[in-house]
Amino acid sequence: MIKAIIIDDEQLARDVIRKFLEDFDQIEIAAECANGFEGIKAIAEHQPELLFLDVQMPKLTGFEMLELLDPAPVIVFSTAYDQYAIKAFELSAADYLLKPYSRDRFKEAVNKALDKIHKPEENKKSLDKLQESSLSKEKIDRIVIRSGSKLTIISVDDIDYIEAQDDYVEVHSAGKKYLKQMTMKALENSLPDEFVRVHRSAIIHIDRLDKIEPYSKDSYVAILKSGEKVSVSRSGYQLLKEKLGF
User: Fold this and answer.
1) What are phi and psi of 34, to 5 degrees?
2) What are the tens digits of pLDDT across the range 49-62?
3) What is 118-144 written as a DSSP string?
4) pTM here?
5) Which of 35, 94, 153, 154 is buried deepest, with most CB atoms within 10 A?
């Protein structure tokens, strides 16, 4: 049996998926969830192979959920919003169902998903880049951090600076540190203009900058209003000069 989880904030939408899945004896519905927080917990508990996932939901969006899953199941998006279709396929979704959809259209999507489930090597290759792709094409206003079963949502306005830590980024906010599995490049591309990549391993929020001091011949140090110090490369210094106009 293939375990599936339905995640959608609309009861009617969940009922439709449940009804249409009666045509697939090999698929077992392990859980139904009304929001992203419930979905993350259910995925951790049941380890499904297949997700039916809405995009716009309370608490966490479908895309924010995917950032927290490693590895992620095969995804069939089910949503009333057509503007997210390109992004969904960039994330290697099996299909993108635009509500309302017919039983035949649903069958087509499920068969595509089953095909991906039965080709795990191909699916794993695409999932390796899922977290990076999910944030690289648009500006964000918050970051979702997962630590065990705990989820923390941090507004980008509350971020002081970000450092690279191997395969993770370390987000510094209000004197606390949070680790998120993501590349610096993906995060840099998604942050608003108030953030500057001052070093290959550091991004700062320019509103937190107090002053810049020379450190060596080709490097500097940024001193934040909190008193914390962040290394600044020569190219990072030039970016800061351009951004701040000095």
Assistant:
1) -100, -5
2) 999 999 999 888 99
3) T-HHHHHHHHTTHHHHHHTTS--SEEE
4) 0.73
5) 94
